[in-house]
Each structure stands twice: as C-alpha cells, then as structure tokens.
Amino acid sequence: MGFPHESHQRETAVLSQHFGVAEARTLDGWKKRGGYQALEKALAMAPADIVTVIKDSGLRGRGGAGFPTGMKWSFMKPGDGKPHYLCCNADESEPGTFKDRELMRWTPHALVEGCAIGAYAIGAETAYVYIRGEFTEPLYFMEQAVKEAYAAGIIGKNAMGTGKRIDVHVHKGAGAYICGEETALMNSLEGRRGNPRIKPPFPAVSGLFGMPTTINNVETLIAAAPILMKGADWYKKMSLSNPKSTGTKLYSVCGNVQRPGTYEVVMGFPFREFLYDLCGGPVSGRKFKAVIPGGVSVPIQSMEEAEASLMDYEGFVEQGSMLGSGGVIVIDDAQSMVRVIARIARFFAHESCAQCTQCREGTAWATKILERIRDGQGAMEDLDTLMDISENMTGKTICVLSDSCATPIVSGIKKFRSEFESLIQGRMFHPVLAAVA
Amino acid sequence: MINLTIEGRPISVAEGTTILEAAKQVGVLIPHYCYHPGLPVAGVCRMCLVEVEKAPKLAPSCATTVAEGQVVHVHSEKSLDARKGVLEMLLINHPLDCPICDQSGECELQDYTFQEGREDSRYREPKRFNPVEDFGGDVVYVPNRCILCTRCVRFMDDVAEDPVLNVSERGDRALIGKFEGKDLTHAWAANVIDLCPVGALLSKDFLNKARAWELDRAASVCPNCTQGCNVIMETRENQLVRMRPRANEFVNAFFMCDWGRLNYRWMNEKDRVDQPMLRQEGALVVAEWEDAIAAAARLLKGKRAFVVASPMLSNESLFLLTQIMQGGSGTFRVMEGDEAPLPGVEDLALRRERAANVYGAEALGFKKSRDPLAGLGKGDVLIIAGEDLDGIDAAAMRGAGETIVIGSVMPHGVEGPAVVLPIANFSEEEGTVTNLRGRVQRFTQARQAPGLSRPSWLVLGDLLGAIGKQSSFFLPSQVFDQLAATNNKFAGLSYDTLGFKGLPIAGEPNKQKTAIAVGAA
Amino acid sequence: MGGLESPDYASHDSGAHEPHTPVFTGAAKRELDELITRYPKKMAALLPALWIVQRERGWVSDGGMAEVAELLELTPAYVKGVVTFYTMYHQHPVAKYFIQVCTTSPCGICGADDVVKSLLRHTNTGELGVPSPDGKFAVIEVECLGACGFATPIMINEEFIESVTPENVPAILARFA
C-alpha cells in the first residue's frame, strides 16, 4: 500500500492493507480484521486439499526463485514416520528488499497464521521463523504475536482445539546475508556457520536436522491465508499478463525515487507506470539512469529495459533481468554506476561464506579491481579481467552468492561501459600499486 | 553396477560411487583439493569440476555420483577453463614463496598449476597477510598459504573426534583457527600435516630440514607399536628425516599416530657395532665375517641356546633364530605405553605394546616376559638378538654359558661376549612383521647399514648353515618361503601374495576398514 | 589483514582479559533451558545462547564462548568458528553506544556516506571503529540493514533508527547522552 505513503489507487493491497495500523499487530486487532479464520478453515481440511488449493492458485515463491509453492509442499510425503519441519525464511537481507520487514512489523499474526497453515499442510508440528538479527522491530512484534497466539491456544499442543500440535518458534539470526540461502539458513538454525549445503539432498528429503523440510519466504506463507479464504481462482485472476505469474506481489522501492516504500500490485503490472506514477518518478531535476528490479543479485536494467518490463517472473526476464525478491533499486543520473557496482561487489565479498574458492577469492578480487577503477587507478584490461573473473564465478559454486556478485558486474560493464572507460582514461593503472602490502 | 564413460573409457562401477573415484579406476586423476577418501565430502574447493554431457552446469566430481549412461569429460575445454579459474583464484593471495616452503616439491598447488594452470596472474592488488601460528603438537600453521580446503578441520571433527580446529571469519578473511589455549594435542593430530595439500600446515619436526626432492623414500611399516601402520620412510643422506603414513585400508587407512611418526631417531642411532668381533685373550677384536660366524657356530654345536630377541626383529629373523635354538627357548620383552585410538577409523590405535612384531614373535613361539633373562639355564649359550637389555638386571647372565651378541648396538651389562655379529636395524633391512590382528606386512630397506653390518636374516641364515643345517638364502623372500612351508600359520603366504598391503595369517579375517574409500588420496 | 575488512573495533579492549564469571546462572540459565526445549538438538540453541551472553555482557568473550560450549556439549573452537561467522556478535568490548550505519548500495546512493561523516563528527570519534574520547560512542559501517526505503537506517545498540540524514544526526545523538 505504498507504505509509508498513501496507498495508490492502482495498487491492490491484499497483504499490505494493514500496514501502518498499529492495532493490526495485536491478536484482537488481527482477529477483528478476519485473522485466523483461514487457519481455522485449514485445520478442518485435509492437508492434501490445502496443497491442492495452493497449487491451483499458481502461488510461486516470493523470496526470489519463484518455485511453485504448492508443488514444493507436495514434495513432503505424509506418513514417512519422520518429523517434518517448516522454516520461514525471514532473513530478508538482499539489499533493496524490505517488504518482509513491513509484513512482520505490521502484521505479525499474519505470519504466525501462515506458518501454522503451512506447517499443517506439510505434516510438520514445528515451524521456525528465522529472522535476521538486525530486524529488532520485526523480532519484537513476532515474538509478541507468537506469545499471544500460544496464550490463546491458536498454536501449541492443541491448535485451535483441534488436537493438532503446531509449534511456532522465532529464531534470531546474527548478521549473515548468506543465511537467506535455504540450506545455509538450516545450518545456521542448527547452530552452525551459515554455510550453504551441497544439493542433493534437497530439503524435502534431508533438510533441517536431517529431516524433510519445507522452507518458504514470509510473503509466500502470508499469501496462503487469503488464498484459502477466497479461493484459488480469485488469486489466479489477479494477473495482467503471464498465467504462470499470479496474485499480488510486494515490491520494496528504494534509491533515487520520489516515494520509496513498499507497494503491492498484481502480477504483470507495467513497470513504467509503477516507477513514474506509483513511486512518483525521479527526484526533481534528475532523470532515472538504471534500475535493479529484484535486489542487487539480479542484472541491472537500462531505462529502456525497465520501462518496457511487465512486473512478473517472465516479464523481467524478457527485459534482461529478474523479479528476484522484488527489491527495486532506482538509480538516477547523479550516480556513478562504477561506484554503485563496486559497492555491490563489496557487499558480496563481505558476505561470502568462504567455502567455495571462486566466491571467497573472486568476490574480493573483483571488489578490489572495481574500487581501483572507481579511484581512477583502473586500466582497460581490468574490464576484460572483471568479465573473465565473473565468468569463473558463475555456475560453479555450491550456492549462487558468487553468481549474484558477478551478475551486476557483467550487466553493469555491458550496459554502462562508457562510465568505466571514462574513469579509466582519466588515469592509467600505476604498477607500483601491485606491490605486496 | 552403473555403466558410464569417462574420458572416452567405458567403465562399470558400483552404484553410489562418485565420478572422482570412478575416474581413478580408469586411470584418470581428476584434480582436487578438498576431497580426501578418508574424510567426509565437503565439495568446496571446486577444483574437481568436470563436464557431464547433458548436464546444465559443470559437476563437482567428488560430490556427484555416477549415473547410467553418463559421459564425463575431464579434460574438455570447459572443465579445463573452470579449473584454470580456480587455480588462479587460489594463487591470488598465495605468497608464492615456494623457495622457502617445506611443501615445495610435494605440493598439489604446484603440481596442478604446473599441469593445467595459467602461466601468469592477472592479480594486481595487495595480497592478504596473516601471521604464522603455532597450533601446538607438531603442527605450525602458515595461513598465507592456506587454500581453505578444510581437510584439517574435517579430520579433527570427524576422524579424531576432537574438534579443536575451525574455519574462522568468512569471505577472503577466512582462515583456519583454534581456541586460545586449546592446542592440537590429540595423539593423531599430526595427520593434518599430511592431509594439507599445500604448505599451510607444516611439521615442526621436519621444518626446514630437507627439500622434498632430496628425499629417498622406502615403503615400510611403522616399527613403533603392534598396529603396524604402513609408512613411507624418508631419508636424506642416509639419515631418516621423516615418517609418513602410507595408505592401507586394511590397517591404518591414511593415517598414523604422532608418537609413531616422530619416533624415528632411534633408527639413526650412533653408537653402532659395525664390525664382527671375536673375544681373544679377554678382549674383543675385529674379525672377518666368516671367522665370526664359524666361532658362533662352534659355540652352539650341541648346546641348548637361550635366545633373548627383540620384537622389532622380522618374522624371517625370528624364524631363523628358532631354527638355531635347537630345542632351546626364546623370550622377548616389549615396552609399554598408553593406548590411544583414532575414533573415526575402526580398530586403529596407537597400541599399548610398542614394537612391530610382538605377534610374530609369539606366533613363532617366543615367550613374552618382563624379565626376558628369567629361565636362562646354567650352561646355556645365550644369544642376544637385537635387544639392548637396557634396564635389565645383568646378574642373571652370570653362570650362563657363552654369550653371542647379534645386534646393532652393544647390549647393556654383557660382560665379555664371545662373538659379536653386527646387524642392520629395522630401517636398514627388508623383511616382514605381523601386527596384532595377525596381518603379515612387508617392510623394505630405507637406509644403508653402517660399516660391515649385514641384514639380520643373512647373518642368521649363514649361522644356521654353519651349524650344519640346510640353509641357502640369498633373499629374505626365500627365508619367508621356508617359514611358510614349515609353519601352518604362515602357510600359503609369500612376498608375491603379500604385496605391499599384507595378508593375515591363517584364521584371521582379511577385513577392510569401514567407511574408507579405496584408492590413494 | 589485507582482506576486505571493515574497520575492526578491536581497540576497545578494556576488560577483555578479566576472568570470566558465568553468565548462565539463575534467570539466564532458565531462559537457555527453555530455549533448548524448542529444538530436537541442543546445538541449535547456540545462536540464542550467544545472544544471551552478549545481552548480559555487552560482548562475547572467549570465556563466554567456553561457557556456552560446555553447556551445549560443543568445543570452544567450534563455538568460536560460529561466532566469527556472524558479524553481530562483538568479539571485543564495544563503546556504550555502538552505532552501525548501513552504507550498502541502496543507502549509498541516498547519501549514507554523508551520514557516516556527520556521525563521526558529532560523536567526536573522528574515525570508523575508534571510540570517542569519553568512550561513549563508536561508529562502524555495516552491510545492508534491510530498511533501504528508509535511507539511511542506523542501529544504536539494539535500537533501529530510520531515515537518518546528516542534519538530524545531532538530535538523534542527543537522546544517547
């Protein structure tokens, strides 16, 4: 709903309609707004039927990968005699993304409800909500909501009096971007370094504590409740474009834009209108130069690409990028693309878990080169080196962190090469710098 | 069985085999760093990437199991480019200090860079630096050379089950760490030195002692306890400078204990008797070998011999001693210490009894005793073979008959031996020993024996001939053949069938350790 | 050194070598015992346990790591490996008000560097990672705090503050006198 701004008439506020309303944070306030009716309905259904509804709705993962949620849930085999777990990925750490933060701090009960529905649907008795440690406010409100839900018997040994056990626990991260990667999150939850695991085995076979596990993003789980209440068809119809992208999507918008905030629009919404109307366009006297539509891991779009994009999983791909986490970073003509990309690379170098060689060494090496170019000490061959390092960092590691670092470098050099070149031509590389420090 | 093709070579392997292990079987070594057959798979170095036809991405061959019909390319352009990229990345922060690095010459970073790396580096930035750290035990850590393969961490976590090492920090700041005050004190900790594929973990004992290419190497068995870990003895200018484990999935997997590893200096012993000697007019004088052997034979003729043998002697020499005894008896003693197991490998420990051939000696009828001279009869000819008698009360020797010393040093407390026959020590000759599970294993000569010393089997063979028994041994294998022909326990064994991994004596199972992938590291 | 490090704040070393007095007694112990029940394996309570140590002591000392290790049946080296992975655990004592400023790209293009400069000036710290002369403040740059639409977010201890500008820094700091 454009939070913290007024909602725009073109928005479709399903998940975000109560942002900014403090009362919705409390159990009473949440119930007043129809809260926990979906859970009550779910607990009266067979788990397989819930999975079918979610499958039919076309809901896809909102964390970045866009995997069909119903299909993911269907991987959890009932009656295998093993404990199942649900993990809620609330480690929202992708720069440019802060939608889950809003969901949790304004509608924490929505997530408790979503977790309970998800857990029940996959045959889990325990759901862990892994929230990044920096999110002090969402952590506080989530813990309050969980406490209230336990006290009211909504979750616990006898959830809503149905005799079914559903525990929801909040788990606080401690500062590591990579824990947003699903297997790293599981390792972190188990009390390990947040190292991504080699797949296979996939989480549905061996996940948290070695048991079948489903992991879903905050927004995905919260979307389950309205789908159950209003039906798969209602959700499926909320699409202006590709039938494989359905429902509404939250976008966090930041950077050099008039009205940064969290917006909710239906799939297939035109990105041009979104940027210029909903978000208010560039700040006065400036022009947009580039957009990163899905968090810093996705390719940078030129304005031509951005303005031609439809906002869904396929639409952004058609225009050279990806929907990703829905973290829209808008960059105006006052910014140096080299500086922006160097700072993105530094982020990934800082966050690399250090397992894979190409990531541990490559992210830091690329950062050093980019910062050298930024500081006017670059050489033309640095650009070739960067492209080649990026190639070595793509598709060769356990997880995609190093790919994510390479993506903005490659797309940046391809689409904004002249900015690199003019910085380099200002001053050639000075070999003294190559001395070992 | 799964059928696949690796580098154009068809192969059929058991389900669940990794591509890396399958490739070994067709003679293709896929370059790798973090993978080690004795450790859990980590899949982090990304060096073993290979191209699998129809797969969207290159596959880490250490973590990818074979599939029916797979076609694997190890040396395709795509795989080579990927590995070249890894090598370049591994070297950007590496100090390239090979001229002063102990690992030089046996370094997998050198080897693979030479084999398929770039000839230059495009790295123009300052290198990362971290100070050298003493990890305790025999281990020193040089972080600048570390490639974070985590073999050491996994060994301590999963094999030694003493998690004292960790990966600390993250990104390019990461390094191997430990907790202040908690050192690598585990009895098997020094294995991390061998496991380290580069010069990051080094042996303090071996530090700056030799260049790898100056060393001569011999396949042997650790003489220091009854486990019989397979080792490589490494010498420089005829001095033993290092012992390292040799892989044997039936005995020690890929490992050896620190005590065994570091206890080699005694084999470089200095106060050697290195010439045959005879007693003349109350004093020992240097003699010809023939004369000394003849003199010993004269003493033994028609007499009962009492043999005090060392449990470090080979099966061959102990067998010959039993022939020479002529109805006499043999005893031995063995040093003892605390047992120290390696929890991650079944039935592997530094054993309480600290000599290689305790079980061989017992199998051949020698009696273990804390006082090996007890039972020495009046008038018996005493043969002291390989035993230095240190700490043994020599009083028992008085009243016995003449004494023949067959050894590499002069035993303590022996007064006026009639004959001294100098023999090679364990590192200087060839033979077999039998470990505590009855496994008979060959060891080979690593050093030259000093002076006129001869291999013990040769000396004892000659002596046996001189007392009139049939004896014509030109090789230790012939002695062993005779042992096998006359002793049921050794029946059917020969040097050829023993190979270099050994075989058990009759009645003992030939059991491979569980959870160890076959093949060299 | 030489790696891509943010400035360390190792300089605030007072108390780093004092003997460790146990954290997990009384209420803290009961809190940990309850936390352990939430997981099928004790080890999973490691991150929460370390948070308790930091809450009680302001940082996680070697002694604190050793204590947690013993309670959760781990080794201190293992715990240290975990602690050093996560940037939010302080491995050294920190200033009374520890200020973390997000300077990642989205905030970076919205003026985060100027916020840092303003904070360094008004806290009288002058340099990243160095405590102010009165020991009250220290400022470090951190990666994405996840509130990019509210550039520039900062954290002062556990308090999350949005939309910080160079101009409103003095008013914010006044609350932490």
Q: How would you describe what is shown here?
A:
The complex is a heterotrimer of chains A (437), B (521) and C (177). Chain A has 437 residues and is α/β, with parallel strands linked by helices. Chain A has 18 helices and 11 strands. In chain A, strand 2, helix 7 and strand 3 form a beta-alpha-beta unit. The longest helix of chain A has 18 residues, at 357-374. The longest helix of chain B is centred in the first third of the chain and has 16 residues, at 77-92. Chain C folds into 2 domains: 26-83, Orthogonal Bundle (Arc Repressor Mutant, subunit A), CATH 1.10.10; 97-174, Glutaredoxin, CATH 3.40.30. Chain C has 177 residues and is an alpha+beta fold. Chain C starts with 25 loop residues before the first helix and ends with a helix. Chains in contact: A-B, A-C, B-C. At the A-C interface, strand 3, strand 5, strand 11, helix 14 and helix 15 of A face helix 2 and helix 5 of C.
- Biggest sheet of chain A, in brief? 5 strands, mixed
- Helix fraction of chain C? 25-40%
Q: What is the fourth-level CATH superfamily of the largest domain in chain C?
A: Glutaredoxin
Distance between the termini of chain A: 51 Å
* Radius of gyration of chain C, taken over Cα atoms and rounded to an integer in Å: 18 Å
> What is the CATH topology descriptor of the largest domain in chain C?
Glutaredoxin
The parts of chain A where pLDDT drops under 50 for at least 5 residues are 428-437
Order of helices and strands of chain C: HHHHEHHEEEH
The amount of beta strand of chain A, in percent, is 5-15%
**What is the CATH architecture assignment of the largest domain in chain C?**
3-Layer(aba) Sandwich
**Number of separate strands of chain A:** 11
